[in-house]
């Protein structure tokens, strides 16, 4: 691995590969008797395709059903950032975000939807400028309970 002396490069490297979910979440987990779905949507995401080394970017929606614990809202966006600052494929990124939320607060369920424009589709080969790729990860109640999943999908679409 090449070590860079430029502070901004070290910052980016540290933010992507050397930063853990625990570093980001720190003390932002709170005991709360909340049984309502929490949805954070429209989180901007910027990453690099590990196959083509070109950007992909878009929006993320994250929802979870608390189980006596909630996470600070800004920490959800930071979890998204930890994984997006790595060379990635969108499918893995979606799963990693869901698993990180699950690990952080042990909710009844987690749902993550990622919709991105991939510059490898826009610039290279296919050159499909209006294409979007959507991936979803559903864990716990979001996978097992149709009504929970449908509520999350509906809430993640509304403006």
From TrEMBL:
<protein>
    <recommendedName>
        <fullName>GTP cyclohydrolase 1</fullName>
        <ecNumber>3.5.4.16</ecNumber>
    </recommendedName>
</protein>
<dbReference type="GO" id="GO:0008270">
    <property type="term" value="F:zinc ion binding"/>
</dbReference>
<dbReference type="GO" id="GO:0046654">
    <property type="term" value="P:tetrahydrofolate biosynthetic process"/>
</dbReference>
<dbReference type="InterPro" id="IPR043133">
    <property type="entry name" value="GTP-CH-I_C/QueF"/>
</dbReference>
<dbReference type="Pfam" id="PF01227">
    <property type="entry name" value="GTP_cyclohydroI"/>
</dbReference>
<dbReference type="InterPro" id="IPR001474">
    <property type="entry name" value="GTP_CycHdrlase_I"/>
</dbReference>
<dbReference type="GO" id="GO:0005525">
    <property type="term" value="F:GTP binding"/>
</dbReference>
<comment type="similarity">
    <text>Belongs to the GTP cyclohydrolase I family.</text>
</comment>
<dbReference type="InterPro" id="IPR020602">
    <property type="entry name" value="GTP_CycHdrlase_I_dom"/>
</dbReference>
<keyword id="KW-0547">Nucleotide-binding</keyword>
<comment type="pathway">
    <text>Cofactor biosynthesis; 7,8-dihydroneopterin triphosphate biosynthesis; 7,8-dihydroneopterin triphosphate from GTP: step 1/1.</text>
</comment>
<feature type="domain" description="GTP cyclohydrolase I">
    <location>
        <begin position="15"/>
        <end position="155"/>
    </location>
</feature>
<dbReference type="InterPro" id="IPR018234">
    <property type="entry name" value="GTP_CycHdrlase_I_CS"/>
</dbReference>
<keyword id="KW-0378">Hydrolase</keyword>
<dbReference type="GO" id="GO:0003934">
    <property type="term" value="F:GTP cyclohydrolase I activity"/>
</dbReference>
<dbReference type="GO" id="GO:0005737">
    <property type="term" value="C:cytoplasm"/>
</dbReference>
<keyword id="KW-0342">GTP-binding</keyword>
<keyword id="KW-0783">Tetrahydrobiopterin biosynthesis</keyword>
<dbReference type="GO" id="GO:0006729">
    <property type="term" value="P:tetrahydrobiopterin biosynthetic process"/>
</dbReference>
């Amino acid at each position: 691995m090449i070590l860079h002396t430029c502070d901004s490069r070290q910052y980016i490297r540290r933010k992507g590969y050397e930063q853990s979910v625990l570093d980001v979440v720190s003390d932002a987990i709170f005991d709360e008797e909340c049984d309502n779905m929490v949805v954070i949507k429209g989180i901007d995401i910027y990453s690099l395709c590990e196959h083509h080394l070109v950007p992909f970017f878009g929006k993320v929606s994250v929802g979870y059903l608390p189980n006596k614990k909630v996470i600070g809202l800004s920490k959800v966006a930071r979890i998204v950032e930890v994984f997006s600052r790595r060379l990635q494929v969108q499918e893995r990124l979606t799963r990693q975000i869901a698993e990180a939320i699950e690990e952080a607060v042990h909710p009844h369920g987690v749902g993550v939807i990622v919709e991105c424009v991939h510059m490898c589709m826009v610039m290279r080969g296919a050159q499909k400028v209006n294409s979007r790729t959507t991936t979803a990860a559903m864990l716990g109640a979001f996978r097992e309970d149709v009504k929970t999943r449908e509520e999350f999908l509906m809430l993640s679409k509304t403006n």
